[in-house]
Design brief:
Layout (H helix, E strand, L loop, with lengths): L1 E6 H15 L8 H15 L4 E7 L6 H4 L11 H4 L2 H11 L2 E5 L4 H13 L6 E5 L14 E5 L4 E3 L1 H8 L6 H8 L14 H11 L7 H4 L3 H11 L23 H8 L3 H18 L1
Parallel strand pairs: 1-2, 1-4, 2-3, 4-5
Antiparallel strand pairs: 5-6
């Protein structure tokens, strides 16, 4: 089986701003939610059977206690923020496994789900649907891969090395050195992408660096690595069969009406029939 793990927060942002580019009459209250639901339904129509979606139920996480400059919900537009929780409700009604993250982030949810799924020998491939460079650390060979919907591309281990210059396991170390503006930590002064890759390939992880390489910045680098390291121990599920889609729940009809797309019900009905036939064959 193939397990598909979706970054719900990223998809919500993508659809919100994508819709805004084409509409000049304001932001539809549930426009981004509809876009994400349509995307998931399309995946089901195309044959996806096992799907899980991680979301940021709240923006802040334990990382905000570790670094005062870490990203917060400040600056997120109210029209977008108001769709966070409805997205979780709509996907749940669709019958898809949803993990609203609170103490952890959606990225940690995806990393944990990938870790659990990859441990199951029945799983042929785990596809993590997000272009976020943080998730590159979860890639393993060509079995756990990143999918970039925007670029219509797949990033396996060779692609991670080609892009960042280091193997996936060293991505947290790499981000600690170069920083991550989106997450709000600056990295180590004077170390760019090329230098970071060279140092990591020469010495291994930050803990193995000679003391003279980072000097007084060693402690800061290790802190940033902690921020960049995704947690894989969130107890999201204990059997990948729980990610199997069996069709929408009874409450989905209400969401079809709220979202204003009557075709969703018929599309889901056909997708559920197709899924059932595949399961029985």
């Amino acid at each position: 089986m193939i397990v598909h793990l979706i970054d719900g927060t990223y998809e919500l942002f993508r659809h919100f701003y994508g819709l805004r580019r084409f509409r000049k009459d304001g932001d539809p209250p549930l426009g981004a939610v509809l876009g994400v639901v349509r995307t998931v339904v399309q995946m089901l129509e195309q044959g996806a059977t096992h799907i899980g979606v991680a979301t940021d139920h709240v923006i802040e996480s334990f990382r905000n206690d570790l670094w005062p400059g870490y990203k917060t919900g400040e600056g997120i537009e109210p029209a977008l923020l108001a769709q966070f929780h409805p997205l979780e409700e709509a996907l749940d009604a669709l019958g898809v496994a949803v993990w609203p993250m609170i103490e952890l982030e959606a990225d940690d949810g995806l990393a944990s789900a990938a870790h659990i799924a990859a441990a199951d020998e029945r799983v042929r491939k785990v596809c993590i649907w997000t272009p976020d460079k943080d998730l590159a650390q979860c890639v393993r060979g060509d079995r756990v891969v990143q999918m970039d919907r925007r670029g219509n591309s797949m990033r396996d281990e060779a692609a991670v090395i080609g892009k960042f210059g280091v193997r996936p396991q060293l991505i947290p170390d790499y981000l600690a050195l170069v920083g991550d503006a989106a997450d709000g930590y600056p990295g180590i002064p004077g170390i760019g992408a090329v230098t970071a890759a060279r140092l990591l390939n020469a010495h291994g992880s930050l803990e193995d660096f000679p003391a003279t390489v980072l000097g007084d910045d060693r402690g800061l680098a290790l802190l940033f690595k902690d921020l960049a390291t995704l947690r894989t121990d969130a107890p999201l599920f204990d059997d990948v069969d729980l990610l199997r889609w069996h069709g929408p729940a009874a409450g989905f009809a209400e969401w079809v009406e709220r979202l204003g797309d009557e075709r969703l019900a018929e599309r889901c009905r056909k997708a559920a029939q197709l899924s059932k036939s595949r399961e029985e064959s």
